[in-house]
UniProtKB/TrEMBL annotation:
Protein name: ARAID factor
Positions of transmembrane segments: 125-146
Keyword Transmembrane: yes
Gene3D superfamilies given in the database record: Ribonuclease Inhibitor
SUPFAM superfamilies membership: L domain-like (SSF52058)
InterPro entries named in the record: ATRAID, EGF, LRR_dom_sf
Length: 156
């Protein structure tokens, strides 16, 4: 995706739709900042060219090689932040696994049998119980209102 020399002052919000981009060129633009959240979901990005005044998103540790040549800083080879030594590993909660989510960004995905806040709930959502309670409460409230309000209805 070539967005070089497009007079961009900020990263366009529409860029979030291009998460499958492998090469992205933002060089030769008057960009002032490069927020990390702009590249959320860009897990396939392998080469990013930005103006030389800006740092690579996620920092230089998020890339295998960072070079400055001419009018651009080249960020090459996105690293997986989950594949690091044990003492530097991303702290995902128990019952979850670390997954890359863009340059220097990670997400923690719950294991298959867990869900909810910090993957603490095991099993599936109790749909039958929830539907039963909701249905019973709805029918009961409807009968109560019908019984108390029918005398106010006009008869022909």
């Amino acid at each position: 995706l070539d967005l070089s020399n497009c007079s961009l002052h900020d990263v366009p919000p529409e860029l979030a739709e291009a998460t499958t981009a492998i090469v992205l060129d933002l060089s030769e633009n008057p960009l002032t900042t490069l927020p990390n959240k702009s590249f959320l979901g860009f897990t396939y990005l392998q080469l990013l060219a930005v103006p030389p005044a800006l740092e690579c998103p996620g920092g230089s540790d998020a890339w295998q090689e960072v070079t400055v040549s001419g009018s651009s800083r080249l960020c090459h080879g996105q690293r997986n932040p989950c594949n690091v030594s044990a003492e530097l590993a991303w702290p995902c909660p128990e019952n979850s696994v670390c997954a890359p989510d863009g340059p220097g960004l990670v997400q923690c995905l719950c294991d298959s049998t867990f869900h909810g806040y910090k993957c603490l709930r095991e099993g599936t959502f109790p749909v039958l119980l929830f539907s039963g309670i909701l249905g019973t409460a709805t029918v009961s409230l409807s009968l109560l209102l019908w019984g108390t309000q029918r005398r106010k209805a006009k008869t022909p």
